[in-house]
Amino acid sequence: MFMTPRGLKIRIDIPTGFTLLSHLWENDPKTDAFRVLKTSEGLESIPFFAGFIGAFIGVFYGSASWHVAAGLVTGNVLGTLLTMFGAFVIPGLPTIATWWSWMSGYGLLTGVGLASAWVLKGWGFAAAWIAGLFIAFVISNVFIQWPRMMYYKKKVGVPFTQSEINFFNAYRLHADRLGISHSIEVSEDEIQSGGWQRCLEDFASKYPEAVARFVR
After folding, report:
1. What pLDDT, on the 0 to 100 scale, is given for residue 58?
2. Confidence category of residue 91, pLDDT binned at 50, 70, 90
3. pLDDT, position 132
4. How far apart are CA 146 and CA 138, in angstroms?
5. What are φ and ψ of residue 117, in 5° steps?
6. What is the rounded CA–CA span in Å between residue 205 and residue 108?
7. Helices marked H in 88-145 — which ranges?
8. Which among 29, 77, 101, 143 is placed 20 to 30 Å from 149, CA to CA?
């Protein structure tokens, strides 16, 4: 297992994960582990970002408080499905979400949303925002991601979570940008070649605090 710079767990063994990252880094030194892992964080934040936008649409254009919850749930579920299947049909969405991921965390953006809903429309709209977060969490995790995780466990023997899917999708996005194969197959010979170690050492030299999260 390894982690992204902000601590998102990627449950893939380090040699396999960093062998994939080395494919990109060796083709373009600017596409290093940090950049790809930040993209993973961006993809991870797409459901929250889409839900946030949906909730704000409900605040500004909704005539009833439940419109806020409906907008948040709709955005979150659509964002979850887009990331799950790697269907980034909205131009620039991964890039926007990656920038968003730099600001997210610690509940600050949720606090901004709740405060805005309360000030603009009253406490009922703020309460609907909270209800929407709960409903979106249940739908996304229980009815979408859990069955998908069990599918992978049955199919390949590994219960990949959304974090691993987002890592693979981040790899594929950068591979497409560089014009190289986006296959995620890694051979034992590649691992034995040591490319993953050089990639990890480069990451550690630039961001020692990030690597210290998962290498002791």
Report:
1. 96
2. confident
3. 97
4. 10
5. -60, -40
6. 31
7. 93-103, 108-121, 123-138
8. 101
Distance CA 64, CA 161 (A): 35
- Which pLDDT tens digit goes with each residue over 41-51? 999 999 999 99
pLDDT at residue 88 in the model: 86
**Cα 70 versus chain centre, distance:** 22
H-helix or E-strand spanning residue 71: helix 66-85
Distance CA 39, CA 102 (A): 11
Question: Phi, psi at residue 31, to the nearest 5°?
Answer: -90, 70
Q: Is the separation of the CB atoms in 88 and 173 below 8 Å? A: yes
Tokens of 18: 């960093």
pTM of the complete model: 0.92
- Say if CB 83 and CB 165 are below 8 A apart: yes
Mean pLDDT calculated for residue range 7-29: 95
The owner of tokens 């920038």 is 99
Q: What whole-number distance in Å separates Cα of residue 41 and Cα of residue 20?
A: 17
Q: Position of tokens 């009253």? A: 122
Distance (Å, rounded) from C-alpha 123 to C-alpha 65? 9
Tokens 């909270």 — which residue? 130
